[in-house]
Amino acid sequence: MTQSVFLCVEYYILEKEYKSLGLLDINAENFNSVALSIFRYQADNCSIYRQFIKHMSVDVNTIKEIDDIPYLPIDFFKSHTVLNNRESAQVIFKSSGTTGNTTSQHHVADVALYQKSFLGAFDLFYGNPSDYCILGLLPSYIEQGDSSLVFMVNELISKSNFPQSGFYLDDYQKLFDTLTSLKDRKAPTILFGVTYALLDLAEQFPMDFEDLIILETGGMKGRRKEMIRAELHNILNIRIGTRHIHSEYGMTELLSQAYAREDEIFYCPPWMKIKIKDLHDPKADVRVGKTGRIHVMDLANINSCSFIATHDLGQMQEDGGFKVLGRVDHSDMRGCNLMVF
User: Fold this and answer.
1) Domain tally for the chain?
2) Residue 168 domain flag
3) Cα(269)–Cα(125) distance, rounded to whole angstroms?
4) Pairing state of beta strands 72-73 and 266-267?
5) In 3-state terms, what secondary structure has residue 86?
6) How far is the C-alpha of 310 from the C-alpha of 73, rounded, in Å?
């Protein structure tokens, strides 16, 4: 087990000088050097990533810029164990998925690193969780079990100073009563919710809670027809009465999250970066404002793979934020089609 967040890559960065580099110490100035060090480390120590790199005919020694780092297709988390050969998993997070689909598994060797990442990002975007009443409306994730999202929200709930904080499953009446009480007390409140459950709540219990922050995590989970984010936010705005409809961009395969607090534009914490790549040429970035496939660099993923090609469509913005526009067609095609073991 690593003794500090990036202890195992210090050999590359500091040539075996013993100095601790923490996740929260990563910034715009050192991101590229840390990312390259992690790439070399993972190319050596994650066998699935190493074989993928070899299959792509990439010489690790020629990678000098982060733009040249190959991204592992996200489907490998469905078909293989993506884990540092030196480590074993403390916990295995599983995606919720829909009935009949193969789900992803993320073997996490250091749960403390995940906690450091999501708590650091929450503090960056929202402040101390103790200052909020934090509610979870995530029934499908709880039913599935082993959810990284439920783990994160549960940890945030545990740090809240409000006794009403907790999960409400699909008990919409109880949640409505709690929200009404919090509104009357003018308590700062964040409601994490999966999309279909938020819509159920809005339809069955319309309210007017202007200062409520709704943090939608996406996903109909086969319960409802998919809709664009702007349509969803408009419905929630009208029926729940809040001006604060935010979004979280995260997934089982990552240990970091991006947040959109306005205009549906997501921003990353300093240890996470998004690239938008051409749909037909994964080596080519697309221009700002043009649509392409979202590729993620998550430096918290040091013990699995930090460089992941998703099935999401997105657009990069001038200020470094990004939009999520939907899914790539045929996204259920498995990543192992790219490489046969």
Assistant:
1) 1
2) no
3) 9
4) unpaired
5) coil
6) 7
Least Cα distance to 195 among 239, 225, 154, 153 occurs for: 225
Q: What is the domain range of residue 12?
A: 1-87+271-341
DSSP states of 1-56 as a string? --SSTTGGGHHHHHTT------GGG--TTTHHHHHHHHHHHHHHH-HHHHHHHHHT
Buried b (16+ CB within 10 A) or exposed e, 265-275: bbbbbbbbbbb
**In Å, what is the CA distance from 298 to each residue of 36, 39, 206, 215, 310?**
12, 11, 38, 21, 12
Q: For the segment 11-34, what is each residue's pLDDT rounded down to a tens digit? A: 344 333 324 457 888 888 899 999
Q: Please tell me the predicted confidence (pLDDT) of residue 5.
A: 45
DSSP 8-state class, residue 306:
S
For residue 293, give both structure tokens: 């496939």
Query: Which residue bears the tokens 């109880």?
Result: 174
Determine the residue type at 196.
Y
261 falls within a domain: no
Residue type, 279: L
Continuous segment of H or E residues that includes residue 310: strand 307-316
Q: How many CA within 13 A on the CB side of residue 309?
A: 25
- β-pairing, 189-193 with 213-216? parallel
- Write out the DSSP string of 158-178: HH-S-TT-EE-TT-HHHHHHH
Residue 177 belongs to some domain of the structure? no
* φ, ψ (nearest 5 deg) of residue 215: -110, 95
In a domain, 33, yes or no: yes
pLDDT digits (tens, 9 = 90+) for 191-211: 999 988 999 999 999 999 999
The CATH number assigned to the domain holding 312 equals 2.30.38.10
